[in-house]
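sanity check this record:
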Amino acid sequence: MDRLDTWTIFVAVAERCSFADAARHLGRSPAAVTRAVAALEHHLSTRLLNRTTRSVALTDAGARYLDGCRRLLSEFEELEAEATERRRPRGLLNVTAPVMFGRLHVLPIVRDFLAQYPEVDVRLLLLDRVVSLIDEGLDVGVRLGHLPDSSLRAIRVGHIRRAVYASPGYLARQGTPQTPQDLGNHECIACSAVTVIPDRWTFEHAQRSFAVAVRPRLIVNTTDAAIDAAVAGQGLTCVLSYQAEDHVAAGRLQRVLIAYEPPSIPIHVLHPAGRYLSPKVRLFVDDATMAIRQKFGAA
């Protein structure tokens, strides 16, 4: 009989104050249970239980050992459950990401994860505001931008840029700006979700950041609307690179003023820090890290 089994028998007897009841609970003979406890007491050179013909009670030493033993058995059960879950992850996984980035790049990861692990369900919360993973009961977050100091574990998985785009048709008619100052002579589409001050766009050159006044003929509050207007030839717009990449690949938009773009914006995968991470969270973090790094490159 191994030591862990012996401790399990001791806990069963102590909690039921009866060798016979513990034997029935464990499916053992009363004699086997009695021998196991006696062997444990001999090994420890300590009496754990006081026995009479009518009752069983813990000694002071037995009470101390019982508390530690319960913790030990609980941790062992957690390890066993983790091993089982690693083979077959299960349960609800809570993930958050920005709305558009989540729809384009996190949702495909979630769909693959669901297909791979049929006993896992996912709640995907897409928000363009920062939420507390701890307060909202979230397991994993994908964040764009520099992070404040926190107790979260952050894995940097890539970067994006804020850039200026226009349709080839617009550039053919109005010319391609060569410096940010040229934007004053162009029609612009401002998106308040990206450029908070619609008529001031920021750039960087030679490690110097500066703002340029622009003339927004159209101001919108979503990047989808800004990009649609730019594709239609309405003017130049400033959005994040991942938001326009499909249109650039299809030839509907062209990136300009590349030499004047601000520093890159990091992408992080986050999860609460802690000694133990459930297998489903660890597996999803690994999948998300690999998939986003393949597309956006570690920065």
The mean pLDDT is 91. The chain is about 40% helix and 25% strand. Residues 162-260 form a domain with the D-Maltodextrin-Binding Protein; domain 2 fold (CATH 3.40.190.10). Residues 60-87 form the longest helix (28 residues).
